[in-house]
Amino acid sequence: MLGPTLETERLILRPPIEGDLDGWEALAADAEAMRYLGGVQPRASAWRGHAMMAGSWALHGFGMFAVIDKASGHWIGRVGPWRPEGWPGTEIGWSLLRPFRGRGYAREAAAATMDWAVDALGWSDIIHTIAPDNVPSIALAERLGSTYPSRRRSPIGPSASGARPRPSGGRGVTLGRDGRTCRAIPAARRGTAGRVPRRRRAPRRGPASRPRARRCR
Fold this sequence. Notes:
CATH architecture: 3-Layer(aba) Sandwich
Shape: globular
Number of helices: 5
Order of helices and strands: EEHHEEEHEHEEEHE
Largest sheet: 6 strands, antiparallel
Strand order of the largest sheet: 5-4-3-2-1-10
Strand content: 15-25%
Distance between the termini: 11 Å
CATH superfamily: Gcn5-related N-acetyltransferase (GNAT)
Number of domains: 1
CATH class: Alpha Beta
Radius of gyration: 16 Å
């Protein structure tokens, strides 16, 4: 295994394995899921994407997690940290198979992997690259605490300049094709003070704003 396994109430999140390819192929064949990711792709392209994510884990020690539905044991998507060369910041991204959208799985997985990225990787900024007409993903980013403090170019497109993470203790940024930048509510206001040492967390202030991973093994 290339990295840790995280567990939430309904999901198991683990690094990719060779047997995930059929799931990647199904996701790549879904026109709705691929609308903002270059369009529908054949199995060979899905394999390259799958291998690229495994390579990120091997080279950098992180990448998007395979999302496994506990109830069925099925691969249902990929969610988690992503920072390819030239990217404007440290990203948490998500993409799920159609039958599992709109049921809170993406938020559950994204919240767990955000926590892991802060605890294990030391990230203090997290971005989400989202096209401006991708309403469901923008809504999810907002539910995770993202706001819109400024406008910047995204890394999508030939003239993109990219944004730089800022050490403010914020928990997220969202970049769209129009340059819209969303930044999460500062961590200190969410009950987590900036970079949190692994196995230690500052006490929460007020009710929890998003689900947490239950354990990492």
